[in-house]
Amino acid sequence: MCQLLGMNCNTPTDICFSFTGFQTRGGLTDIHSDGWGIAFFENKGVRQFLDPQPSSTSPIAEFVRNYPIKSKAVIAHIRKATQGVVSLENTHPFQREMWGYYWVFAHNGNLENFNPDLTGFFQPVGNTDSERIFCYIMQSLRNEFGDKYPGSDKIFAHIHKISLELAKIGELNFLFSNGEFLISHCSTRLTYIVRKAPFTTARLKDQDLSVDFGDLTTSQDRVAVIATTPLTDNESWQDMNPGSMVMFKNGELVAEATTHAWTKKVVTT
Amino acid sequence: MCQLLGMNCNTPTDICFSFTGFQTRGGLTDIHSDGWGIAFFENKGVRQFLDPQPSSTSPIAEFVRNYPIKSKAVIAHIRKATQGVVSLENTHPFQREMWGYYWVFAHNGNLENFNPDLTGFFQPVGNTDSERIFCYIMQSLRNEFGDKYPGSDKIFAHIHKISLELAKIGELNFLFSNGEFLISHCSTRLTYIVRKAPFTTARLKDQDLSVDFGDLTTSQDRVAVIATTPLTDNESWQDMNPGSMVMFKNGELVAEATTHAWTKKVVTT
Prior knowledge:
homodimer; 269 residues; alpha+beta; Glutamine Phosphoribosylpyrophosphate, subunit 1, domain 1; seven-stranded antiparallel β-sheet; 18% helix
């Protein structure tokens, strides 16, 4: 099993604090030592750092932790291999282009014997179930909507439909983003927090580190952080229900789906 | 205009020495200060570092220069913007997946008014002529060969055909690789060197730095380095002829094309 970390905000924000706690789970405070990766969107561009080494000892992870890259959408992953060897091509997050956007995907879980027909435009490079799931979602979106970007609501509804099918096969927690929005699907474990004014001090669970977000933010800032388990021990994280899916845009939860239906939230900006 | 750097070898090799000279051209010894990027293949996986900052002052470039990532195929680029703003999505090298391989492309030159129909599976994310050229090549390869990877020789021949068309429009120096081979097309300026035993000492042109490759290699190693202009001043670099294209595999030149025809080299391993 693996661990996921996501961030979505209304203003470019660095993820150094959250990543500091997350990084130690890759071989130090937890067992996820089969590689790690992180993708930062900056407008439509994406910057990705991937490393098959454990994040707790990876020089690249150390660099990322100390170098504040500001982004409105981030997806990170630390890996405990279930399917596929430990190698660069099996390291999450995965990335593909569609409709003139880059799409980034990271998965926690295990879909045994999931071998869909992927002989078209989205073929896996490595040999994980996770990359096959990503390619399957991309292929299905493309088959459904053709050449043109259909917008976030239609994508959310379609991925919700696919996820209901796939979650029958096995554990399927994932993060998915094109930089404009971030979708989070929970099959067993995912939790999130939306930080906004008045900002307070947060204290990491996995390291002796606190930060007063009041010093670093303006009253307009809004930052959603999603993780497999809470990263801080003095804030209220919202556990997602198994079978639910949410979408964040500009740091705000804008859509929510259960196993039965999904609703669009009224945005209260 | 921009500068290109490529490497292809028969054993995973770090590019720290060549990158040290190359990096200084991004704003220090030369004017290419509108971003830089580098892609390292490791088997079928690829690790990419992209930064819209000048490479001479980029902390990520400094990290890459000092951290020896071993790879058999590398493509790097420093940018002097001609088309498209300075931004992450316009930073080379560009990457796409096709046939279960990642493909990486970087371009030096300028194709004015090059706006091919790109509404299918390879759409540009940014707004450079370079990314449009890459998408056009990928689309054309896919249209020609369908769902299945056709192998390097057919790809070389087809890209040669496309390049003859495109080079009529403007300057088209590029590097293209899937990790198994590296294609280099020269429209105006590209030069290469193949280092093999007996290895000697090389001295950088752009910085006061020498390295004795005899200390770092075995007698079986073979390393091809391709650059816009020679990176060292005490070795014999082979200038490519305008209109020519070469392919390297395992550090060896295996195919060469002129404006008229292409020949497959007899590999003498």
